[in-house]
Amino acid sequence: MPKRITIIQGHPDPANNRFCHALEMAYIEGAKNGGHAVKRIDVANLDFPLLRTREEFEHGDPPPGIVDSQEAIAWADHIVVIYPLWLGTMPALMKGFLEQTFRYGFAIGTIEEKRMPRGLLTGKTARVVITMGMPAFIYRWFFGAHSLKSLERNILKMSGIKPVYESLIGNIDAPSDRKRMKWLKEMATLGKRGV
After folding, report:
1. Which residues on adjacent β-strands are paired with residue 6?
2. Which residues are CB-neighbours of 169 under 8 A, at least 6 positions away?
3. pTM of the predicted model, to two decimals?
4. Is 139 helix (H, G, I), strand (E, B) or coil?
5. Tens-digit pLDDT profile for residues 94-127
6. Cis omega (within 30 of 0) on the bond before 163?
7. How would you label 53-64 residue by residue, b for 16+ Cβ within 10 Å and e otherwise?
8. Alpha helices (runs of H) in 5-91, residue ranges in sequence order
9. Element containing residue 9 per DSSP (H, E)
10. What is the mean pLDDT of the chain?
11. What 3-state DSSP class applies to 37?
12. Which helix (H) or strand (E) holds 188?
């Protein structure tokens, strides 16, 4: 069954020539071949300030680019988040985007709720794609995949998005052409399946 898919490209370089962008394009091509509808959010080309106070997060008005992003996320059945691992976590621009976007009233219930706020994005699934210089198994087993777990638990699942699938792509600094093509083919296959 065709899905509505929104891809959040979290690489902060607006030049669009990073491997994260190639993975995104492969996923989009596969998704379109599978009959899915696709929207893109390119975080590097959005204009938004970083949140500096709790008051801003809880009561501030999101800027227009963030409102458009929220609409694209609300539209989607499946969300794909792509970013490179920088200093063991997501780039600061991506974190700033998530803080602006996944606010009370959009992703989670109101601050007045006495217990854990309810997720407002239920019924959606997600895939997180992370590229990194180290081998993926070292990130997962030695470092505990903490950036992935934080995004999955503290943002996506708290918002009601589940299940959350993952693709960890390691040794990205000097991959062979064969390995690079394998990763791109895998993204196209996932896109075609809409997962």
Report:
1. 39, 79
2. 19, 23, 129, 130, 131, 132, 136, 183
3. 0.95
4. helix
5. 999 999 999 999 999 877 765 677 899 999 999 9
6. yes
7. eeebeeeeebee
8. 19-33, 54-59, 64-75
9. strand 4-9
10. 94
11. strand
12. helix 177-193
